[in-house]
Amino acid sequence: MSLIQPRTLKGFRDYLPAVMIPREQLMQTAREVFRSFGFAPIDTPTLEHLEILTGKGSDETDRQIYRFKDNGKRDVGMRFDLTVPLARFAAQHIGTLGTPFKRYHIAPVWRGENPQAGRYREFIQCDFDTIGTESVLADIEAVAVINNLLETIGFDRFTISINNRAVLTGLLDHLGLADRSVPVLRSLDKLTKIGREKTIEEMVSTAEIDSEQAEAVLQLAECSGEADTVFAKLHEITGGNEKAAQGIERLKNIYEGALASGVPSRRLRLDVSIARGLDYYTGVIFETVLDDLPAIGSVCSGGRYDNLAELYTKQHLPGIGASLGLDRLIAAMEQLNLLPTVSTPASVFVAYFDEAYRDDYLRLASNLRAAGIGTEVYPEAKKLGAQLKYADNHGFEMAIIAGGNEWNEGQCQLKLLKTKQAEQITYSHDAPSTLVDRIRQLLK
Amino acid sequence: MSLIQPRTLKGFRDYLPAVMIPREQLMQTAREVFRSFGFAPIDTPTLEHLEILTGKGSDETDRQIYRFKDNGKRDVGMRFDLTVPLARFAAQHIGTLGTPFKRYHIAPVWRGENPQAGRYREFIQCDFDTIGTESVLADIEAVAVINNLLETIGFDRFTISINNRAVLTGLLDHLGLADRSVPVLRSLDKLTKIGREKTIEEMVSTAEIDSEQAEAVLQLAECSGEADTVFAKLHEITGGNEKAAQGIERLKNIYEGALASGVPSRRLRLDVSIARGLDYYTGVIFETVLDDLPAIGSVCSGGRYDNLAELYTKQHLPGIGASLGLDRLIAAMEQLNLLPTVSTPASVFVAYFDEAYRDDYLRLASNLRAAGIGTEVYPEAKKLGAQLKYADNHGFEMAIIAGGNEWNEGQCQLKLLKTKQAEQITYSHDAPSTLVDRIRQLLK
């Protein structure tokens, strides 16, 4: 029989334990943070009627959808994000669920794009949204969630940039350029890449505004410093325009509310230049950059949108949400040495080298597990050296070694695998607490 | 613009929070139990080269695969189980991973079968396997994992039936019927459904054995009672056949090892009649039945197989594993009232009804979260009645109510939502411990 070559599809990948352990941990942390704010989990099918997926998508997204006819000759597609399924879900169930509706969704999505470095055709999205309210409290909460997410994952130095698109819209209104907001924002988005002068040039040529107007936009975008100073400057530049004033007021509320929610001021930045998701976000916008790795881009972005599910229902559903970039975060944690390099989720390894005592090894392991200590018993009574090599390779913290003598004497050896330090500890099945306490102490 | 009808595909479903919360909890419990034994998580792509999936599948599985040509004209399919991907994965990576390799995998699979009651075209599988060892210790551990899984999920009364196919094979050998094992097992599998006499009849007609031989098979299958008695009877019926004797010895080791691993004897049952997965399992076989709901069938099944990845590699990879039936368990928990009926993962609800104190509500919530208490703030300053109705509907345990007076006096009201009992508690942002302690006490 000829063998089938074992291989994954181009653009797809296997997750081996050393990579999957921190991914799973990250997802679990995200769940816990979402839950602590009352966001509830949902899930939706991988496959949707194709018309649901292509409803609003751009040509580019449309091309990327994995699509086919199923056995029932239905046109179906694999979801390419979690936002379209959320919109369909909300349209279908909001009557049952009521508003406000707060959900999180952590699930894979698929895009048949040409894979680039670090990008795959299958990847996890990790989204949270509050639907059915325009309250600024939901905006504030989104900032607090982002802060707690990154903090709980283990980051300390990061910056959440906050914008409210209404401020710039108000300025354009004030300048009599209300209809140019899209090209202006598109140019503005390039500010950090192409620099001040080129941004002004591009604005003048593509948005058809004069250089003085472009200068005002740039001044607005460049407002920075102490929050109070920024708010004053924004008011000044927008010349009392009412829309802008309201936008600034909301931004101020978000800023103050975030502080009240425990977000340190050093992590907050007001930045009127950020403009992501032009066709989608309508109010506040967030981006989050790791201070030590700004080059990897935003690791958590989102914003407020006007009407989530307009393709599927007449019910007006405004909302706010953001998305945690799991893959970017993992890459960042790797670069910053924040990732454990183990391929076992258990801490204690029990060597098994005297078959006559098999049930003793099992009982010992069971006692440790009952005390909440993850414990693996090597399955074969091989030579100790081979077993300890396995334990080392997998990254166990410590090994327990006991042969016939030790079992008879009510002893075992506890060995720290990194330092090779070993100690004898009394142990009996009926009184495992000396060993348990010592292991707990060492694991701290 | 005409609306697109929001609907899911036939055979697929959305998971709303009330259903998703316990599902997520169950998956998390499973992860924790797997990890406590040193099983490590992996993940594999949803899509595989079609030839990988169709390699060994039966005609029936083949028909059920969601398959299509991707944009690169490759024949691809969505995985229909986690075993085929594991085999491919092991063939591809075992050189890096080494053996023994212990993994768990919790992920959706897809089958385009005609959906029946309670069965869907997309469902989660939850598998664990130990690959690369024939040691009985791995068999024992599988029993311990099943026990700890169900116990940690919250079940007390369940029975893990254990068989070793070698025992029956040995008997057939002894009777000179070594080549009839498949039809004999197939008939035997119907014992509980069609009864003793019909089973014998079927064996005689389909396996072409005589009624005395069938009687011996039935006697073997019906061995029950105290473990020691069963082992003695099995030896007697198999008449000293060596293969059977070895099989019985292994069964005995598994039984004793399971006891040593903390599995109570009342949950263990030796049952030579169970015969699942005829074409796949070759040694020990498990089934797990909830004592209070036997009708729903086995909630965790598995067994030992000879060679996992023979289609993809020449490396011999024996293994043992089992699969937790998440959907069945959820259905069972619902029937046994073991499921919480909430649609929020947070316990505390903070009513928000005085906008002037918005940041105080936020700070209070942030303080509770910092103490590990899940807390949701209602996003709009609506009437209290509407807010409490929302809190009731979602199943929060308690609500905190504070207006201007309370804030000024350093007080808040804590209301238990089920009993409507309310109490005044002192609270200030700088000293939240009185409130925190009281909430913790009430949540216990």
UniProtKB/TrEMBL annotation, chains A, B:
Broadest EC class assigned to this enzyme: ligase
GO BP: any one term: histidyl-tRNA aminoacylation
Any one GO CC term of the record: cytoplasm
UniProt keywords, alphabetically: Aminoacyl-tRNA synthetase, ATP-binding, Cytoplasm, Ligase, Nucleotide-binding, Protein biosynthesis
Domain Aminoacyl-transfer RNA synthetases class-II family profile span(s) in chain numbering: 1-345
SUPFAM superfamilies: Class II aaRS ABD-related, Class II aaRS and biotin synthetases
Catalytic activity, EC: 6.1.1.21
Chain residues that bind L-histidine: 81-83, 111, 125, 129, 276, 280-281
Protein's cellular compartments: Cytoplasm
GO molecular function: ATP binding; histidine-tRNA ligase activity
Pfam families per record: HGTP_anticodon, tRNA-synt_His
Reaction(s) this enzyme catalyzes, per UniProt: tRNA(His) + L-histidine + ATP = L-histidyl-tRNA(His) + AMP + diphosphate + H(+)
Subunit: Homodimer.
Family named by the database record: Belongs to the class-II aminoacyl-tRNA synthetase family.
Name this polypeptide is given: Histidine--tRNA ligase
